[in-house]
Recover the amino acids of this structure.
């Protein structure tokens, strides 16, 4: 297939490109700075938010599939930075998706895959949910704008018979959980506490596993939604102390909820106490995919040991 990627220079993009090339696909990418384009990729200069540039690039590339992996802030999985990251990332999800879909339509591109998140489920019902669970559209206002952008992206993509990949929290090279990443820095400073018991459930996925699921999803006929996560959703109170230990950091502080809500806002507070984990049963069954890093424990240990060696 001719595959066109927006976000090829990002954490998942850098994993995705060589996998696609290895599978025999021909890869082109929309990049704001062609000097940063991954090796072997046909780089087309453009910006997801500039419809004319997206249109020109896609019409020139004539792809069979478009993959939307653009996000506006590399620190997006640092809860304390999320507030600042929200608006630009939401625009990439709403306007960016509309621009890419318009270009797909103009070029007759039959397949469209877009990223979403597996941690935007409503905090009701089971602690681990599948793709049919409702999104958190009743969230507090600040968080609701994020979920509304996610829901808008998903509506657009599914309306065009595309595939939505709800990725879990990325870890691995180039992510904020890597030993040189923002989350690692914050945990070393004891800046990421466990508030109110830390019962919020987190589903992680190694970026390479996420990329492998994405390659597999190119074969799916949409509309379809998949959680792309590992096998072991875990509460904050479990994974954060283990992550801190592996980093060689002091144990995280245990705090009441209110100071965290005050400092980090409702997004941080919800994530830490009420967030739902996600099940990967559908992706396992339908994509012929299983995560090589099935358990974040082993995955974290492997990543941080490699970084430390
Ligand atoms: N990080 C997570 O834990 C997580 C979890 C679930 C879902 N996701 C989603 O998965 C996707 C990939 O995340 P990631 O961690 O790989 O992101 P990342 O490392 O921050 O990379 C973002 C990519 O988007 C590109 N980009 C940003 N704005 C653009 C624009 N206006 N036009 C064209 N390209 C633009 C960047 O290109 P430049 O080189 O030009 O900057 C970069 O390639 C994102 O959509 C994210 O929301 C992430």
């Amino acid at each position: 297939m001719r595959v066109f990627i927006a976000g090829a220079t990002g954490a998942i993009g850098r994993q995705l490109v060589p996998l696609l090339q290895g599978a025999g696909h021909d890869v082109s990418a929309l990049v704001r700075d062609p000097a940063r384009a991954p090796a072997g990729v046909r780089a087309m200069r453009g910006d997801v938010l500039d419809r004319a540039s997206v249109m020109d690039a896609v019409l020139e590339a004539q792809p069979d599939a478009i993959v939307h992996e653009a996000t506006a802030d590399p620190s997006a999985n640092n809860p304390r930075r999320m507030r600042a990251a929200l608006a630009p990332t939401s625009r990439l999800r709403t306007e960016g998706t509309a621009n890419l879909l318009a270009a797909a339509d103009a070029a007759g591109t039959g397949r469209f895959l877009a990223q979403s998140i597996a941690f935007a489920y409503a905090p009701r019902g089971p602690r681990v949910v599948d793709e049919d669970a409702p999104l958190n559209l009743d969230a507090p206002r600040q968080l609701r704008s994020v979920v509304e952008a996610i829901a808008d992206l998903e509506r657009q993509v599914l309306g065009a018979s595309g595939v939505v990949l709800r990725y879990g929290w990325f870890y691995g090279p180039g992510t904020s959980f890597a030993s040189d990443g923002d989350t690692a820095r914050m945990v070393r400073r004891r800046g990421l506490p466990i508030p109110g018991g830390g019962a919020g459930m987190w589903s992680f996925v190694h970026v390479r596993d996420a990329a492998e699921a994405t390659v597999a999803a190119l074969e799916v006929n949409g509309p379809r939604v998949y959680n792309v996560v590992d096998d072991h959703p875990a509460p904050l109170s479990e994974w954060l102390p283990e992550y801190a230990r592996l980093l060689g950091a002091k144990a995280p502080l245990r705090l009441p909820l209110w100071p965290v809500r005050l400092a980090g806002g409702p997004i941080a507070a919800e994530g830490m106490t009420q967030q739902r984990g996600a099940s990967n049963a559908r992706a396992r069954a339908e994509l012929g995919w299983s995560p090589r890093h099935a358990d974040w424990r082993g995955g974290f240990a492997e990543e941080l040991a490699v970084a430390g060696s």
User: Anything to note?
Assistant: The chain is about 45% helix and 15% strand.
